[in-house]
Amino acid sequence: MALITYVTRVQFDFGALSLLAEELELAGIRRPLLVTDKGIVAAGLLDRVRNALPARLPLAVFDETPPNPTEAAVRAAVSAYRAHEADGIIGLGGGSPLDLAKAVAVAATHPGGALKQYAVIEGGLNRITAAVAPSIAIPTTSGTGSEVSRGAIIVLDDGRKVSIGSPYLLPKAAICDPELTFGLPPLLTAATGMDAITHCIEAYLSPRVNPVADAIGLDGLARGWRHIQRATTDGSDRTARWEMMMASMEGAMAFQKGLGAVHALAHPLGGLPAPPVLHHGTLNAVLLPHVLRFNAATVPERISTLGIAMGLEDTRPEAVADAIATLAARLGLPASLGAMGVPRAVLPAMAAAAMRDHCHPTNPREASEADYLALLEAAYAG
After folding, report:
1. Sign of the CA dihedral 360, 361, 364, 366?
2. Band (1; pLDDT cuts 50, 70, 90)
3. Interior CA angle at 23 toward 257 and 224, to 5°?
4. What is the pTM of this model?
5. How far apart, in whole angstroms, are the C-alpha atoms of residue 135 and residue 27?
6. For 146, which DSSP code?
C-alpha cells in the first residue's frame, strides 16, 4: 500500500513576506514566539519580519538557535514560549531555526520529559498529536525545505541526531520569499543548494512507491542543477534565487518518501559534540558521489534518469557521480571529510550510528556497518 500525502499552504514569490500577518490570522496565532538565530538578526531579516507585522501584535523572540539545534535549545525556547504565553510559533531562518521551531511546537504542548520519546526511531510518530502549537515557517536559505516537511532534526541530550516527525508538525503556512536569500554568502548558498539537490536525488532513489514524489524530485533536481552556480556566483540573481528556493521546497516535498545513506551518515556526523561544527549541506555534497557509486549496482537506470534531469550527455551512474563531485569543487566546497576537519578516529562510531538512523532503511541498496565504514573512508580521503 502506498501512502501519499501533500503538503501545506505555501505563499511563494518575491514579496510573499507581506502576507505574513494574513497567514498568522488564518492560523489563529495571536501571540507568536519567533524562533531564529543571531545571524538572521545581524543580517536585518528579523527587522524585515517585524515590519511585516502589525505594531500591536505581541511578539517575543528567541534567537539562540545553535547551528545544529539541540534538545537544550528546545528547552530554552519552550521556556520563552511559556513566559510569553504564546499560542503559536514563527520559524525564521535556515533549517536549524525552522527545525527548532517545530520541536518547540511539540515540547510546549505535549507531556514533558526527554525529547527522545518523540523521535521517529523511538516510536515518537504515534505520540505526537494534533495538540502541537501552530507554526508559520519563513525560510531564509534554499536547502533544507523544512518549511514544507513534517520533521525536525534535533541533537538529543544523549548525543544522537534524530528526527522528530509527524504530519501534525507541518507548518500551517510557509512564506517562501526568495528575496530573503539575497544576502546569503556564496559558500553557504552552495552548501545549502547541494542539500536541496541531495534531497531530490535521494528521494527519487528511495525504494518506496510514490510517483508524485519522484516527479517532484526530478523537477527540483533539474532546477537546482541549472541554477546553483548562478546563485552562488551572483547572489542577487533573481531568477537563480527563485529557482533555488523552489528546488529546496520540492526536495522536501519529495523526501516524504524517504532519504538514504547520505543522510544516514550526515546526521551522526552533524551531531559530533566537539569542533569543528559540520554543515549538513556540505557533508551531503562530500558524501553524495560515494553513495551514488555504492547504489549504482542496485538502481543504475534510476541514476541514469537523474543524469537526464541534470542535462548530462553521459548518464552512466559513474559519470553522474563524477559530475556531482565536479560541481561541488567548482562551487568551492571541500572535496573530503578530511578537508572538513572530521577526525578519522570517529569514523567507526559514525558507521555504527548510521545503521540506527531513520534514513538507513530507505536507501535503495541495503548497507551494512562495514559498507558505511568503507563509504566514510572513501569520503575521508576524497
Report:
1. positive
2. very low
3. 40
4. 0.93
5. 8
6. G
